[in-house]
Amino acid sequence: MAEPKNGNNNRIPRGYDPEDTERRIKWLKEKKDIDFQDPPMNNPEDLKGIIENHIGFMKLPMAITGPLLVDGQYAQGEFFVPVSTLEGTLALSMSRGMYATFASGGIRVRHIKQELSRAPVFFFDNINDSFEFMNWINKNKDKIIEIAESTTRFGKVLRIDQYPIQNYLILDIVLDTQNAAGQNMVTLAAQVACDYIKEETGYNYMVESNFNSDKKASTRNMILGRGHSVVAETVLKNSVMKRILGITTDLVQKLQRPGPTISAMAGTTGTHLHISNALTAIYLATGQDTACVAENSIGHFQTEPADNNGLACRLTLPSLTVGTVGGGTRLLPQQQNLKILG
Question: Domain check: are 205 and 253 in the same one?
């Protein structure tokens, strides 16, 4: 992984006085060459598709966190992350953790896949009809995909999976949504495709069966993923942990041992820390759908000993429903924050 640059210039200036805020804005200009300012709010006519019955804007406190050193397939280098939160200590906790990984050489990230689905369900009087329907889907899959893709300029259908249960059939229509989070994209594609199927076969459907667990934690999304699936790892130096985090690698390992057992006892989905806190703050700042945190905060976290008394930390996030176009990313403050993020 990349070696971090030394020097206090990587540390974000602290303090609550007005001049401290000004120092951070000046520091951000030096680090990212961005003239940060409170941008004007969007005009009401720009909000179509974002909100209805609009009466105004709610301004939330915003902070900058980092530095974050990333070695990824698409992101390389040093980043600073804008967050919006009402949770005291979150921004400092995130910065402290990021700086500890920064001082230890950074975080390696690998992107596994991106796919978002909508899962309509078709209804039948008996199982014979449902199985004949499955054969019809297989024979006409190319046409169904063509019709689904006609609804979007960028989305591509990756596959259509079939799940029969009782006298129902679930079609999990999976798309690559490119730079969009894609919730509306997959819904429209699925609906138009299913309208064609209904016209050809006569069978009724419901556009979402709840199989893809949209905005809900589920075993399905933990295994198959929904949105972006990523794995991240870092090796924390023991000296860095003692200096920045005030703890040793041995103690962290000891405290981590009961986690999986007690998580299983409680029936949680995944084994991890408070992923939802950070995701919500980042989502608010960058225009993501915050309700997706319900499924996006599923994760698997583990630690193990590393060379020179270091601590290897790994986190798998199978479902990150995020984008840089569409939805709340159209808002001016969120667009500015996406530029800060890079």
Answer: no
